[in-house]
Amino acid sequence: MKYCTKCVLPDTHETIAFDENGVCNICRQAEIKHEAVNWEERGEMLLTIIERYKDNGQYDCIVPFSGGKDSAFQLWYVVKKLNLKPLVVRFDHWGYRPLVQDNNIRVFKTLGVDVLQFTPDWKVVKQLMLESLKRAGDFCWHCHTGIFAYTMQVSVKFGIPLVIWGESGSEYRAYRTFEEIEELDEKYFSQVINLGIDAHDMYQWLGGGVSRRDLAPFVFPSKEELEALGAKSIWLGNYIEWDTLQNVKIIKEELGWQGARVEGIPPEYDYEKIECMWQGVRDYCKLIKRGHGRTNHLACIDIRAGRMTREEGLKLISTYDGKRPASLDLFLNMLDITEDEFMSIVKKTSVNNYDFDSTGIITGETLPDMKDWKV
User: Fold this and answer.
1) Cα 121 vs. chain centroid, distance in angstroms?
2) For strand 86-91 and strand 61-64, is the pairing parallel, antiparallel, or unpaired?
3) Whose CA is closest to 200, among 214, 184, 189, 186?
4) Among 27, 71, 268, 278, which is disulfide-ready with 65 (CB 3.0 to 4.6 Å)?
5) Share of the chain above pLDDT 70, in %
6) Of 291, 298, 242, residue with least CA distance to 267
7) Are strands 162-165 and 86-91 parallel, antiparallel or unpaired?
């Protein structure tokens, strides 16, 4: 594999490209973020948007909320900095770790917000997870599609046109750049969010295993519905200079938000992807398909921010990436497949003819709360 000469991303990363100096486009986007974007001007743009939608109904906006670091920060910012009254929308994907509920209670009580939670049929979700794994090597279709589609459905049904998401996708991928300002619409949903798979595809592939009504929460509203509402769905990270470490410091101090260990990453990143039981398995899928894991992702972020050298990043990756997650046994039992079947399915979706070698792979440590996971 070819690696970026500045960070440590390989050429198997999604949307990656290298310039004549071997530097990846994600690193170049980070330079634009830190050096070229006028964040004061962007902040004024955000305030202009807010003025257009504030005090026009029961709620000023919707804030989608998982309970992770980014959604906790975006909710804090919306309430405390923008002085808005949001409706918090939670799509329960059936994978939340026990700590998340405790964090959420602290956050909601501290900020004083109304919360709407939706939990889809578990039997449907289980079929969607397996089908998504087979088709894309990623079992999270129901989660990503559901979070975005259902939130926008609530926007339409409740007549709340403004939806505020968290960090910009340009932090990690090159579908857009920081010079552009992303907004969520049907095109973006199909290109970036749903793995190129829509609810109709799932209905056809499952061959009658689920009804169209079962898949309704995963259908993105039509262009006509969104235009009639005057919907505006924005990313906060396009209007403020997103700094994960500073954001985490704020939510820990202001909201009592607590971190936790996550499979396959260093303990100092106790804020990263703490909310999902299956994060370790998902990162393992990425390792099998693309040859790099979550520690690589985190090291790249810190290298671009000047907090870590490339050599330090490589050392961290060699220590933490590449392990089989202990949670894989629970995951396989849940979906009723063998490890050989799992490996065969995921390998079929590998990119650039990458061939993962599982020889000598060791199993990582068991997380302390794994005994309490409701699987």
Assistant:
1) 22
2) parallel
3) 214
4) 71
5) 100
6) 298
7) unpaired
Residues in the chain: 375
The answer to whether residue 53 scores a pLDDT higher than 80 is yes
Rounded to whole angstroms, the Cα distance separating 253 from 56 reads 32
Q: Mind listing the pLDDT tens digit for each residue in 141-200?
A: 999 999 999 999 999 999 999 999 999 888 887 777 888 888 999 999 998 999 899 999
CB 206 within 8 A of CB 131: yes
Q: Residue 64 in 3-state DSSP?
A: strand
Only one residue has tokens 């009804």, namely 211
Instruction: Tell how strand 162-165 and strand 114-118 pair up.
Output: unpaired
50 close to 63: Cβ distance less than 8 angstroms: no
Residue 354: pLDDT above 90? no
Both structure tokens of 329: 């046994």
Only one residue has tokens 């807010």, namely 50
Residues 6+ positions from 347 with CB-CB distance below 8 Å: 288, 289, 355, 356
**pTM for this one?**
0.95
For the stretch 260-270, pLDDT in tens is: 999 999 999 99
8 A C-beta contact, residue 61 and residue 163: yes
Pairing of β 114-118 and β 86-91 = parallel
H helical segments located in 60-195: 69-76, 98-111, 122-136, 141-158, 186-188
Query: pLDDT tens digits, residue range 194-219?
Result: 989 999 999 999 998 999 999 999 99
